[in-house]
């Protein structure tokens, strides 16, 4: 029981008046702030109030005796003392509504002014924070990095334990991979988890009939055979085991077993009979050898490889560590990116690590509430922070994480692992110790080579992670080294011009994935480790740079240490023996392992487990490149006005996006976001018609086909899908090549070739897209803005930890009750005079390493023993705090805690309108049989004709929208397109009782051939209608008028509103020329793209070799012509002479006349006959 009591002082009226007076006086005397200034008011990082606690305390009207009674979980507002502290604690820690101290003070003032009497002060709230956070929150851990920077990381094990104890999350988590056959929709169904992940990191056991079966332990089947399970997985909702067959054998007179690891087959869990302990105790009765004696695995007829998977005498190590408890796997998506800590344009780079559970379904994995913060720093580079995270991960993988399972209501042991590391291309290259997009080997996944004459010096960017054309180029720190220093750009050397055959060879290699696979991560690491012996140390820089160029591997973490050695080797004034001694002394201060921490992540290959990130490669890559190019080619203002009008007039029904702002998309083409490019790629083939050449329109259509495949959340047939995707990517690259070979100077056009393989390994590309993580950057930025910037890593980590606690408590998560609570009045150590507030210890200038005491490898949660957790009573917050989330959907809107998966069931009606007679509906005139559609004999003829109905996929379908529906015919089910004419809800019907529509009336259409310009199918409306059940309609679809053939004009016909008032002038808009039944199916639609598959047109395959050859010849001819024009211009006019006057080119003599400055005589030399002939042509 923690007493947070404050004493009653003056009478209510006196104290209330004094408080309001003081607040008003402080507000009126506050100095003005220049809103244009970048300066921000400082706040105290020790969570102190804006005013002194003593004076603030005296102004509060009343004071309760507030006590956190941890031994009484039955109290109404447990674990908070009362409603007031609960509400204020929520307001202080809502992630999306981060408040500053002044804003919190304003909230307090507003509550008191409204008559609330029992509000706790800021100091009381801080004390409550200090009590609750250690009990049911996440702890932040200080690390002194190997590169000399201090940073803070939240407890990875504690966050994972919270996820297991959170009933909302735990009910959705999957721990076993699944064999889903040809379909693929989740990460646990893909090959990385199902087949490749190290078996020691997968769920090692299942519990069946009170027996625990572990992998790599002999088990007896019901048919009497013995097998060795190697992996557990799901198939058709049953648990299966992939096993190796075992045979009894007598070797050197000792009976035992051999494991035939070449004979693998699948066994259903219901066929298991005896687990390892029971087999050990009963093997003699069955006449079988002791299962603890394994002679090995056969490699030939008479040779055996030793069994190394486990100790045969004791079985799987997790059995002993679990002690009878369940053991589950917990793979994660690990993400890192840089974001600015400022809201202004001034860049304040923060590298941040986030993660989310890979075992969550796709629709939940990127929800904001399921994304967890690990670490951020504006001084420590990513790999230095990763070092601390890997240290936590390694301990957790060795020991397992004890957590309370809210489903089984018991302790379980959790094994974390990294399924993949996500980020933009520069960040993934840094993780992979890859030289980056500007290197000779620009691809981190294969050994394709770029233009050898287009390489940049390795010294230019020690990170080697530039991303040509991506938003990350705007970073002010794009050339920071690992230790925070800057590298100067070196001048590029002259580039050799390639011949036609050289260009053809380079492009053919560029658009092909090499057959040979990349080296393993272990071989990569071994190749790049430099032997730091004294003879090499003095001349290692050239050798190191050469290895980077030849291998494409660049370990910037190791590079920071090597640079310090190189600095000594090039230092003047010291002899070679002295330098050797200095280097030896310096090397003794280095940590034992100076290579990148990514190599220490178990079963993780950074070259293959960093999947193609579709946001930056496609939307912020190809779509951005093409859109900027398209807008730049519109030189005339009239053409841009036409494009703006087409965009603003575009019908977006079925696309799931807001109406487009043509003015923004065209005039600010260089400052658009991923959301803008998502809309552009779905409309570009229509709005650019007639403004660009036909080849460019075809390239847009090919790109749209790739996008619709990539953004599919569910894949029904994986093999067919991969074939379709590879075909679409190849066609897109062929269309791009037909435009210009210069596009293939951008590496993203090669990286996309690896996407099909990554989808096989990790699941649909939407799973490893980073939009959710990118959105989370706004929360990190808000925490940075509301801190005092003195210790950003610590302060942001603490704010995020408080947010974790709030989410856990309000989700009904379990936490420990009977533990000793910390004292809220615990004092902090005082800072010594002159001591900096910053926690960073930068590297000293003399290259010496400060002596640091390494922290304990165990985090606060990992230090908790099984005995301590077993003796703990696990409780949840009371019901009253949880009910607060239902007020105005607060939990769903601001905390992201959605309790229901289905918001509106299919058939739900909106905009019912007034009742009308059945005879006045369009359906009655179409002879629809009302009794058959209502489901009962009708005695009324009253109906509603709603304006909107919700479809089965969640789409809101309006009258006038186009829909895709299934029609049953004599030859089977056919997919059709229709236009919604009327939505009917019959009064008194079964559907009306549940607020749903009875049927939808649609007009039929005929789907024709593909249009030559749009490369999409045309449809034509016919004079027939059909009544459909809601379940027959699959989705809404976007169709566009065939403006290209009907010569639709742009006229000033659209109303303009200013300040919500209609203005007198009109804006340009598209006026469609009829016939109105000439339409085109927009198969560039991203939503429900799989449903539109029958209507998609497959273009004729292009001959790649011919396209590359023709494009190379055109490029060579254009380059040659340009060189000739420049040479001729130089001969005729001569280059402009800069000041001061340089030596005259081509023999031109500059002579002053009579000493008059600025007056010269230009003496042209006599040209050769060949040159004279060229000039006269």
Automatic annotation (TrEMBL):
Compositionally biased intervals (Basic residues): 485-498
Compositional bias ranges of the Low complexity kind: 467-479
Region named Disordered: 33-65, 453-503, 820-859
Domain of life: Eukaryota
Composition bias type Acidic residues, residue spans: 33-43, 453-462
UniProt protein name: Transposase
Organism: Mycena alexandri
């Amino acid at each position: 029981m923690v007493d947070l009591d404050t004493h009653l002082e003056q009478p209510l009226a006196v104290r209330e008046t004094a408080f309001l007076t003081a607040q008003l006086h402080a507000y009126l005397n506050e100095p003005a702030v220049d809103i244009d200034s970048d300066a921000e008011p400082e706040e105290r990082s020790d969570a102190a109030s804006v005013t002194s606690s003593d004076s603030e305390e005296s102004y509060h009207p009343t004071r309760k005796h507030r006590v956190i009674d941890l031994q009484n979980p039955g109290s109404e507002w447990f674990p908070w003392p009362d409603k007031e502290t609960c509400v204020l604690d929520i307001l202080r820690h809502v992630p999306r509504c981060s408040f500053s101290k002044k804003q919190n003070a304003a909230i307090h003032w507003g509550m008191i002014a409204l008559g609330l009497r029992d509000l706790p002060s800021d100091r009381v709230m801080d004390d409550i924070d200090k009590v609750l956070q250690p009990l049911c929150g996440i702890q932040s851990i200080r690390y002194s990095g190997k590169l000399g920077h201090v940073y803070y990381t939240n407890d990875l094990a504690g966050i994972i334990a919270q996820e297991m104890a959170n009933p909302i999350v735990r009910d959705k988590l999957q721990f076993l991979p699944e064999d889903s056959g040809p379909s693929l929709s989740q990460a646990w169904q893909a090959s990385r988890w199902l087949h490749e992940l190290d078996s020691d990191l997968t769920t090692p056991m299942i519990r069946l009939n009170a027996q625990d079966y572990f992998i790599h332990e002999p088990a007896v089947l019901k048919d009497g055979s013995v097998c060795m399970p190697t992996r557990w997985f799901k198939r058709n909702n049953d648990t299966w085991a992939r096993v190796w067959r075992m045979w009894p054998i007598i070797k050197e007179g000792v009976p035992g077993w051999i494991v035939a690891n070449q004979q693998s087959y699948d066994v259903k869990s219901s066929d298991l009979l005896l687990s390892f302990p029971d087999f050990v105790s009963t093997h003699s009765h069955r006449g079988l050898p002791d299962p603890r004696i394994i002679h090995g695995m056969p490699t030939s007829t008479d040779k055996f490889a030793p069994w190394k998977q486990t100790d045969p005498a004791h079985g799987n190590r997790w059995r002993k560590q679990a002690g009878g408890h369940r053991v589950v796997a917990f793979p994660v998506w690990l993400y890192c990116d840089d974001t600015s800590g400022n809201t202004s344009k001034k860049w304040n780079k923060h590298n941040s690590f986030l993660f989310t559970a890979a075992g969550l379904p796709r629709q939940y994995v990127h929800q904001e509430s399921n994304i967890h913060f690990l670490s951020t720093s504006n001084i420590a580079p990513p790999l230095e922070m990763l070092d601390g995270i890997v240290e936590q991960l390694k301990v957790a993988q060795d020991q397992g994480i004890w957590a309370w399972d809210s489903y089984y209501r018991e302790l379980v042991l959790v094994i974390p692992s990294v399924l993949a590391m996500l980020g933009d291309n520069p960040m993934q290259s840094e993780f992979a110790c890859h030289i980056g997009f500007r290197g000779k080997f620009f691809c981190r996944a294969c050994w394709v080579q770029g233009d050898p004459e287009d390489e940049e010096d390795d010294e230019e960017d020690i990170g080697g992670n530039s991303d040509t054309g991506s938003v990350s180029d705007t970073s002010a720190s794009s050339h920071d080294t690992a230790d925070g220093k800057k590298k100067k750009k070196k001048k590029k050397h002259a580039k050799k011009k390639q011949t036609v055959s050289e260009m053809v060879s380079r492009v053919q290699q560029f658009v092909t994935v090499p057959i040979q696979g990349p080296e393993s991560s272990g071989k990569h690491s071994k190749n790049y480790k430099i032997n730091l012996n004294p003879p090499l140390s003095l001349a290692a820089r050239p050798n190191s740079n050469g290895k980077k160029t030849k291998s494409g591997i660049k370990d910037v973490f190791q590079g920071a240490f090597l640079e310090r050695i190189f600095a000594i080797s090039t230092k003047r004034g010291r002899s070679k023996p002295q330098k050797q001694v200095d280097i030896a002394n310096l090397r003794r201060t280095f940590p034992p392992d100076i290579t990148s921490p990514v190599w220490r992540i178990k079963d993780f290959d950074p070259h293959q487990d960093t999947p193609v990130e579709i946001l930056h490669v496609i939307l912020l890559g190809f779509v951005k490149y093409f859109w900027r190019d398209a807008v730049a080619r519109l030189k005339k203002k009239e053409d841009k006005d036409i494009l703006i009008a087409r965009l603003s007039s575009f019908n977006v029904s079925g696309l799931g996006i807001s109406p487009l702002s043509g003015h923004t998309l065209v005039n600010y083409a260089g400052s658009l976001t991923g959301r803008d490019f998502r809309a552009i790629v779905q409309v570009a083939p229509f709005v650019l018609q007639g403004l660009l050449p036909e080849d460019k329109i075809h390239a847009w259509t090919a790109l749209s086909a790739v996008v619709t495949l990539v953004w599919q959340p569910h894949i029904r047939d994986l093999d067919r899908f991969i074939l379709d995707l590879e075909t679409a990517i190849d066609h897109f690259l062929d269309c791009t090549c037909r435009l210009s070979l210069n596009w293939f100077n951008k590496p993203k056009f090669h990286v996309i070739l690896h996407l099909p393989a990554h989808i096989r390994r990790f699941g649909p590309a939407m799973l490893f897209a980073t939009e959710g993580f990118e959105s989370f950057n706004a929360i990190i930025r808000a925490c940075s803005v509301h801190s005092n910037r003195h210790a950003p890593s610590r302060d942001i980590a603490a704010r995020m930890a408080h947010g974790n606690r709030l989410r856990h408590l309000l989700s009904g998560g379990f936490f420990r009750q009977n533990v000793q609570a910390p004292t809220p009045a615990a004092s902090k150590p005082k800072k010594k005079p002159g001591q900096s507030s910053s926690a960073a210890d930068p590297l000293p200038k003399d290259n010496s390493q400060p002596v640091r005491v390494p922290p304990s490898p165990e985090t606060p949660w990992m230090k908790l023993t099984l005995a301590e957790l077993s003796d703990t009573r696990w409780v949840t917050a009371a019901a009253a705090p949880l009910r607060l989330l239902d007020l105005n959907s607060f939990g769903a809107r601001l905390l992201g805690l959605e309790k229901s998966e289905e918001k509106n069931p299919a058939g739900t009606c909106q905009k019912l309108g007034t009742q009308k007679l059945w005879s006045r509906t369009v359906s009655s005139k179409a002879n629809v049989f009302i009794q058959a559609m209502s489901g009962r004999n009708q005695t009324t003829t009253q109906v509603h004709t709603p304006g909107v109905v919700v479809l089965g996929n969640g789409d809101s379908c309006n009258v006038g929208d186009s829909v895709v529906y299934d029609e049953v015919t004599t030859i089977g089910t056919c997919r059709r397109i229709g236009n919604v004419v009327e939505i009917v809800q019959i009064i008194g019907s079964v559907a009306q009782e549940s607020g749903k529509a009875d049927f939808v009336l649609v007009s039929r259409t005929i789907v024709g051939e593909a249009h030559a310009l749009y490369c999409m199918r045309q449809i034509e409306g016919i004079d027939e209608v059909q009544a459909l059940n809601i379940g027959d309609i699959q989705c809404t679809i976007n169709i566009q008028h065939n403006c290209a053939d009907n010569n639709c004009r742009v006229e000033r016909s659209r109303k303009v509103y200013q300040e919500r008032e209609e203005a007198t002038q009109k804006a340009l808009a598209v006026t469609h020329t009829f016939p109105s039944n000439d339409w085109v199916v927009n198969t560039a639609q991203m939503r429900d793209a799989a449903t539109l598959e029958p209507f998609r047109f497959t273009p004729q395959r292009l001959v790649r070799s011919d396209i590359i050859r023709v494009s190379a010849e055109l490029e060579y001819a254009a380059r040659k012509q340009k060189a000739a024009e420049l040479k001729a211009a130089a001969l005729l006019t001569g280059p402009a002479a800069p000041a001061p006057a340089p030596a005259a080119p081509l023999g031109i003599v500059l002579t002053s006349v009579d000493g008059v400055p600025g007056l010269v005589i230009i003496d042209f030399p006599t040209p050769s006959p060949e040159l004279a002939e060229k000039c006269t042509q």
